[in-house]
Amino acid sequence: MFITCLDLEGVLVPEIWIAFAEASGIPELRRTTRDEPDYDKLMRFRLDILKEHGLGLNEIRKVIETIDPMEGAKEFLDELRSLCQVIILSDTFTQFAAPLMKKLGYPTIFCNTLEVAESGEVTGYRMRCEQSKLTTVKALQGIGYETIASGDSYNDLKMIRASKAGFLFRSPDGIKAENPDLQAFESYDDLLAAIRKEIGA
Length: 201
Known about the structure:
By secondary structure, this protein is of the alpha/beta class. It has helices at residues 16-24, 39-53, 57-64, 73-83, 94-103, 132-142, 157-162, 173-178, 188-199, and strands at residues 2-6, 85-93, 108-116, 122-126, 146-151, 165-169, 183-185. Strands 4-3-2-1-5-6-7 form a seven-stranded mixed β-sheet, sandwiched between helices. A hairpin with a 5-residue loop joins strand 3 and strand 4 (122-126). The longest helix is centred in the N-terminal third of the chain and has 15 residues, at 39-53. The radius of gyration is 17 Å and the shape is globular. The model has no long low-confidence stretch (mean pLDDT 95).
């Protein structure tokens, strides 16, 4: 039995923080897990900038409402879900994900939670568990599933390497160069074909 574990941002939807950086005119917020391997360092950096500019969850949500899935993403996801179980494993937050999940047809997502004050200020965040993507993949394997994983960023590499099959998808050249043994795809058709081959569909 197979479960495919997919990253969200950069794979199915555009990067939320990049969209917010463009909308807010704060270029520093363009930094993502494609650039920074240390997620805690990245989030503390983001929260400091939000506080400095007096921005909170409400402002971010207004931008998220304008984000659509990448072209072909929903069709890819629908086809994949007809072949095997699929879980989106993301380091985003429940408060960000809801409108995006609606546009993707409500797939299953495991993600994290923001700590938000009554004023809307984002005061912190809670990870679902330590090394959440890797931990989840290993837990799924522990209950009898073979996992296939795909993502684009540094925080996806451990789940990709721990899976029966793992693929980079639309990753930056630097990540591809650092991981030459991993197959890297740019199109949903190619990624779907690779997954089909693995599960024998």
